[in-house]
Amino acid sequence: MAESISSARLWLTRLAVIGVLITATVVALGAWTRLEDAGLGCPDWPTCYGSITVPLTAQAIEQGQALYPDQPFSAEKAWPEMIHRHFAKTIGLLCILMAGIALWASRKDKEIPVKHAVFLLFMVCLQGAFGAWTVTMKLFPPVVTGHLLLGFATFTTLVLLVARLSPFLKASGNKSVASLLPFTLLVSVVLVLQIGLGGWTASNYAATVCTALPVCQDGWHEVMNLPEAFAIHTYAGTTYEFAPHLGAAEKISIHVMHRLGAWTTTVLLSVLCVLLWLRAAGCRYRRFAIFLAGGLLVQILLGVSNVLFGLPLAVAVAHNVMALLLLQIVVLLVFSLVREKRS
Hints:
Elements: H1 2-35, H2 58-67, H3 75-105, H4 114-136, H5 141-165, H6 175-178, H7 181-203, H8 226-229, H9 248-279, H10 283-308, H11 313-342
Helix pairs in contact: 1-3, 1-5, 1-11, 3-4, 4-5, 5-7, 5-11, 7-9, 7-11, 9-10, 10-11
């Protein structure tokens, strides 16, 4: 029995690692879909123009177009959307399997994080609902932003599950570095808010309205309209693709706040790197400092490249993925510091 419980823990760990890899792919695919303006590549959910996959025959395309005459069919936009959906379904199946294994193994192994696995399944179900609403509510910005944040949260929950199941990040006894926990928590909150600003910028099609550095082009402060830029409008039932409900001033306001948030996040992360390096008594926290500094540098270069080269697809997707990775480094640092505090 002990051997079967150990096997269950091993399989749960393996599935969690696979889930991390697939979810990272889904986040990248979601960014690719959004940046290709393919969020409505399939105007229905879970089907695509009434088909279980992208319509392939002339007859299927004709039938689908008859169902949605206001949404011209484009295979180039439908494929990214359906590939994203199929990968997302795989995560759902993995989470169901992990929750089942955790519930079974927890009867004998009380250290199995069964609540974590069940919460993860809940998160994935909620994410699936937001995915459906993204389509049925025609890219309503609060829903699109929520969908992005839940994607990041699902990935983070999976990473933490791997951390709890693995032998790494045990307490090292470094009480000096443990005192950085409050500041690290502050940095994590600011980073999440910045990611939310990035999602709001993308969902309101404001990523390209500022074409100069470091904040925006001349005169940006004269057109700022924050109340309208961040107002949660009532869903109107019309399409929100390309954000027709916002003017140039509102989009500039959103982009500027994202830029200012980037400066704030950069300063806080830089301070955290320095403090980690100075207080680290061992290699672990110096590695955290190196990973954070390296990730931050890459993210800054990607952000600058987005501005200078007009938001190229590959760079913009990499910018999303690097934000996800930076968040994981900070969250794992918090996880490690909590263990130091409790030891």
